[in-house]
């Protein structure tokens, strides 16, 4: 049986931390920024962690 390939689109968007959490950056921060208020843009700037329910799915996609 062959090796399982990494899903490259997911690998570019998610990263696994040392403790096993999956980190990602927020969407909706590329264009139409004039319509969004400053508080929303400030929130979207940072990163956050996936919920435990989604972590297993993404880890399966980006396995090394």
Keywords:
single chain, 64 residues, alpha+beta, Factor Xa Inhibitor, three-stranded antiparallel sheet
Structural description of this entry:
This protein starts with 7 loop residues before the first helix and ends with a helix. A hairpin with a 5-residue loop joins strand 1 and strand 2 (22-25). 38% of the residues lie in helices and 16% in strands. It has 64 residues and is α+β, with helices and mostly antiparallel strands. It has one domain (8-61): Factor Xa Inhibitor, CATH 4.10.410.60.
Q: Layout of helices and strands, plus pairs?
A:
Elements: H1 8-13, E1 14-16, E2 22-25, H2 38-45, E3 47-49, H3 52-61
Antiparallel strand pairs: 1-2, 2-3
The CATH topology corresponds to Factor Xa Inhibitor
End-to-end distance: 17 Å
Q: Low-confidence stretches at least 5 residues in length (pLDDT < 50)?
A: none
- DSSP strand content: 15-25%
Helix/strand/pairing category: alpha+beta
Please outline the major beta sheet.
3 strands, antiparallel
Tell me how many strands there are.
3
Give the structure's gist in a few sentences.
The protein is of the alpha+beta class.
